[in-house]
Design brief:
InterPro entries: Ion_trans_dom, K_chnl_volt-dep_EAG, K_chnl_volt-dep_EAG/ELK/ERG, KCNH_animal-type, PAS-assoc_C. This protein is an alpha+beta fold and 539 residues long. 52% of the residues lie in helices and 9% in strands. Strands 1, 2, 3, 4 and 5 form a 5-stranded antiparallel β-sheet that branches. A two-stranded antiparallel ribbon has the order 6-7. A hairpin with a 5-residue loop joins strand 4 and strand 5. Helix 12 runs antiparallel to helix 15, helix 14 packs across helix 15 and helix 16 packs antiparallel against helix 17. The radius of gyration is 39 Å and the shape is flat.
Length: 539
């Protein structure tokens, strides 16, 4: 196996079923090879002439660095005339005619080779001022040379890749707006907060609805990963897949319920309650978080934050339900409900105000009372104490409805507490596992030194060696990873050692062949004051 630079420093020789003719022998002159084009003459075992055109083309990556060389062999025997044996020595005309025929055939075959390159590569508009020098040496334009890089999937102009930077930022925006919706919708429904009465809140909710509607449109134009792991970019397949999966749920969550609620009249309480209840459908937007949950599972810190946010979100929902139950009991005349007791404690009492509906039936509505913020904080305090413990008794369930809800809330809270905080413990343990292994290793080394009565000077050197080794690897099993990535060992060694070869003065003026030692040089970590023998071998 030869590396790219080594290929350029060797002559052209093919040893297989082909027998080299004397006229086609290329001298192995070490540095005589150059990047470009050669036309070695070969022959079969029966001395039938065979002419091959050899092109050496550099392969660049996305950083415009030559990483490979492409060797292309083309049979040009048909383009050449039979080479006559020059038996008469000293006839210069015959030799010149042979050289002219060879140059003409090579020029003729070059156009064929360029055509072959162009047919397999996409047309790229290259800047003529940035033509590659290596491409100029081999008389090939840089716009037809292949590149060694990860090829992005070819998608139509109106299709977005699901892993592009814009889509990643957009998903985080949708995640934040989803949590905003999950907080505000239950609060507005429980406290009967009409967005039509608050212009700023109405504008904000309308903007959120528009953003979620734009997200539906983007989902019709975003690629997805198919069952076989391939990236699906066909617009028809994308639309059908989205229509069969999340389209209905996303559409129901984006309907303008605030516009419907604007038609809520005081004389028809039933329709107003229906429109207020329809806002809860917006909680279906949480499905957007569920479908992208696998992306957040890769990061321990992100998953920890999401679990805590979900726990607080459930507590917020239960607080809104707890307030609704207390207000319903207070409106029904239960003066011993928690909400009525709160009004007596704060000194801001409720009072009933008579009202009439469309059927001319007189009803009484609850008015005044403690501030809305005080009632919400008290409800959230009670739900948090019940979810984390058994409560403290300062806020307690008094009516039958409150007691039944408290029982259900304790069951839900116990399950959530065990599940969520169990995961939190696991995540924190994983985040601190490296530090724990580090201290355990240091303790084992110290115990080993004490057990064998190692001298203090040597013990300090051993500890320095252990600490420096850990600082280099961070506790990662490098040997196991290298075994799994055995085919890329040379690439990793070059990346690990290039800093030494690029910055050390001893290698500053070294030739490229010497720098190739970075690919075959293993990393050796030695203790202070110890010189390890280094053995060189030829690769």
């Amino acid at each position: 196996m030869w590396y790219g630079v080594q290929i350029l420093r060797r002559g052209c020789k093919l040893d297989s079923v082909l027998a080299r003719l004397p006229a086609a022998r290329s001298p192995d002159s070490g540095d005589s090879g150059s990047l470009g084009r050669k036309s070695p003459g070969l022959g079969w075992d029966n001395d039938t002439p065979l002419w091959l055109l050899l092109h050496i083309a550099p392969i660049r990556n996305e950083k415009d660095v030559v990483v490979l060389f492409l060797l292309t062999f083309r049979d040009i025997t048909a383009l050449k005339q039979p080479v006559e044996e020059d038996t008469a020595k000293g006839k210069k005309k015959v030799g010149l005619s042979k050289f002219a025929r060879l140059a003409r055939s090579v020029t003729r075959s070059r156009s064929v080779l360029v055509q072959q390159f162009s047919s397999h590569l996409p047309a790229i508009k290259a800047d003529p001022t940035k033509q590659s020098q290596i491409a100029h040496m081999i008389s090939l334009n840089s716009d037809i040379l292949p590149q060694y890089r990860q090829e992005a999937p070819k998608t139509p102009p109106h299709i977005l890749l699901h892993y592009c930077a814009f889509k990643a930022i957009w998903d985080w925006v949708i995640l934040c707006l989803t949590f905003y919706t999950a907080i505000m919708v239950p609060y507005n429904v429980a406290f009967k907060n009409k967005t039509s009465e608050d212009v700023s809140l109405l504008v904000l909710d309308s903007i959120v609805d528009v953003i979620f509607f734009i997200d539906i449109v983007l989902n019709f134009h975003t690629t997805f990963v198919g069952p076989g792991g391939e990236v699906v970019s066909d617009p028809k397949i994308i639309r059908m897949n989205y229509m069969r999966s999340w389209f209905i749920i996303d559409l129901l969550s984006c309907l303008p319920y605030d516009v419907f609620n604007a038609f809520d009249h005081d004389d028809d309480q039933g329709i107003g309650s229906l429109f207020s209840a329809l806002k809860v459908v917006r909680l279906l937007r949480l499905g957007r978080v569920v479908r992208k949950l696998d992306r957040y599972l890769e990061y321990g810190a992100a998953m920890l934050i999401l679990l805590l946010c979900f726990y607080m979100l459930v507590a917020h929902w239960l607080a809104c339900i707890w307030y609704s139950i207390g207000r319903s009991d207070a409106e029904n005349g239960f003066v011993h409900s928690w909400l009525w007791k709160l009004s007596n404690t704060t000194g801001k009492h409720f009072y009933f105000k008579p009202s009439s509906n469309s059927e001319s039936n007189t009803t009484h509505e609850l008015h005044k009372g403690p501030p809305r913020g005080t009632m919400y904080v008290t409800a959230l305090y009670y739900t948090m104490t019940c979810m984390t413990s058994v409560g403290f008794g300062n806020v307690a369930a008094e009516t039958d409805n409150e007691k039944a809800f408290t029982i259900c809330m304790m069951i839900i809270g116990a399950l959530l507490y065990a599940t969520i905080f169990g995961h939190v413990t696991t995540i924190i343990q994983q985040m601190t596992s490296v530090t724990a292994r580090y201290h355990e290793m240091l303790n084992n080394v110290r115990e080993f030194m004490k057990l064998h009565e190692v001298p203090k000077a040597l013990s300090e050197r051993v500890m320095d060696y252990v600490v420096s080794t850990w600082a280099m690897s961070k506790g990662i099993d490098t040997k196991g990873i290298k075994l799994r990535l055995k085919d890329m060992t040379a690439t990793f060694r070059y990346i690990f050692n290039r800093k030494v070869f690029n910055e050390h003065p001893a290698f500053r003026l070294a030739r490229m062949v010497v720098l190739l030692l970075a690919m075959v040089s293993p990393m050796i970590i030695a203790a202070l004051g110890i010189c390890l023998p280094i053995f060189w071998r030829e690769y």
